[in-house]
Amino acid sequence: MIQLRNIQKSFGNQPVLKGIDLTVKKGEVVSILGPSGSGKTTLLRCINFLERPTEGEVMIDDITVSSQKGSKKEILTLRKKTAMVFQQYNLFRHKTVIENVMEGLIVVQKNSKETARKLAMEVLEKVGLTEKANAYPVQLSGGQQQRVGIARALALNPEVILLDEPTSALDPELVGEVLEVIKRIAEEGITMIIVTHEVSFAKDVSDYIVFMDQGEIVEEGTPTVIFNNPKEERTKRFFKRINREAGILESNLSSVI
Amino acid sequence: MQIDIPFIFMALIEIFKALPLTIIITLVPLIIGFLIGIGITIIRIRKVKGLYSLANFYVSFLRGTPALMHIMLIYLGFPLLIDKLAVTFRWTFQSTSIPILLFVLMALSLTAGAYMSEIIRAGILAVDQGQLEAAESIGMTNFQAMRRIVFPQAIAISLPNLCNIFIGFLHTSSIAFIVSQKELTGATNIVASNNLKFLEAYIAAALIYWGLTIISEKVTALLEKRVTVYNRGGVI
Ligand SMILES: Nc1ncnc2c1ncn2[C@@H]1O[C@H](COP(=O)(O)OP(=O)(O)OP(=O)(O)O)[C@@H](O)[C@H]1O
Ligand SMILES: [Mg+2]
Asked: ABC transmembrane type-1 domain location, by residue (chain B) (predicted)?
């Protein structure tokens, strides 16, 4: 179980997160939606302390790391229980696909090279990239690179995978293959927190939806409740805008076709 | 005046015997300078308190003055310091027993450190921060992430500059002859004055330096292809 308690974060004197509380149960998929600049990325980065929160604490399983007192060692333990998938993939460019996946298995989890290779191959199978095992990142499409990013996270068998807009750097025709992989691992019962702008995907894959605006959770609940019956004005407005944009996109597309 | 071409060949062979010392005066400072450069880079990137301004001063001063000055300052200044310390601590040790070569190597190592730190820093900054974060996000320590992910790429990116500095230092090593080191240039001077054929001797020396430089450039090109192989998808 993952629990965030009163997470606050300021950059300088600009408050970006204003006290976030969130509980994610084992095996749950939680999607975070919200307008640009609402603090979604910052929240995700506070969970693994890539950004140290100004206030609050992060609890995963038996360990609790607090914003101010969290030591290097505690943060390292926390990070070993989490993994992250980045918008820009952030693959290790000087390593092949399989080496990218093996890196954490060897350096962090101290597996032997052979064991790591075997585990990595199994995970590459899951994301459909066994054929690219010995390719370098520059040789892959964006969608393939992101699937490696997911494999790298998945291989470590973390308590939770944090995904920050995993498809928003991709060309539209490559989005599908990545979402499909994420959906498949969601069905395996891997706990995930996903920041995404793909509303219909979020509806489809999530057990729980969090809507954020201006550093706060405005509304949260099951997809059915949030999408069909949002209570807050800000949530309604956000979905209206998203729908309108999607509509414009569609009518543009149909006029092109 | 006639140029004595056969003498150039004789001089070439004679001067060439001094190559090992030139290699030592080139490579030792570069190796030590590389280590200094890494240290300075870490201090500057991490903004280590207390050492940060010292590191900046070091780089600024040594890059802002000719290598010849570093050799002279160390050669003249260091013995004074040693002798002062010897008196204070009642050592029997005397600065005159230190070989001059050691001063040269010290001075040029400091020079190299300043240049290396700039090159290494540029290389590290050229590796995108995202990869470091990715490494840390899977539980690698900052040190592991730097050593395994950032550093290899930084070196690959810096390689052309590192090879340039090698050639630069190959040429710079010639100033060691000022403090009577018998490296290529020192040897040239001896050959020249013993035979009173200065131009011929220096033509020979120039040819040797040129040849060494061309070889270095060729080796660089090969090395570069090898370490950046990941950018071309594994094709050497
Ligand atoms: N390192 C930083 N330094 C200063 N301000 C920052 C930093 N990172 C984020 N911010 C600010 O914090 C706010 C929230 O940013 P964040 O990236 O978390 O938003 P987001 O919800 O992920 O937006 P988007 O949907 O555009 O990705 C923004 O106003 C941003 O400018
Ligand atoms: Mg974001």
From this structure: 19-220
